[in-house]
Design brief:
Oligomer: single chain
Shape: elongated
Low-confidence stretches: none
Order of helices and strands: HEEH
Largest sheet: 2 strands, antiparallel
Organism: Primorskyibacter flagellatus
Strand content: 5-15%
Radius of gyration: 19 Å
Protein name: GpW protein
Mean pLDDT: 85
Length: about 70
């Protein structure tokens, strides 16, 4: 199941707060408790969340324009 942009952002914010506080164990927005072995592991998790957020928030076209021509 894919997470919404709001859920991804909340997960990233929670992980950033935990990392800044020096905490390696934290409960994510879904209630799951995660324990990271190192700061570099947390950094990789943040990078993965940032990549998912970027992919999810890319602008999608709302309108499609078709061009047609009448052949002779």
């Amino acid at each position: 199941m894919a997470l919404s942009l709001d859920q991804l952002t909340a997960a990233r914010d929670g992980l950033m707060t935990a990392r800044a506080a020096g905490v390696r164990r934290f409960r994510d927005s879904s209630g799951e408790e995660v324990e990271y072995r190192s700061d570099s592991e947390m950094a990789r998790a943040l990078a993965a969340l940032d990549a998912e957020i970027a992919a999810t928030s890319k602008a999608r076209p709302h309108t499609l324009h078709f061009t047609t021509s009448k052949g002779t």
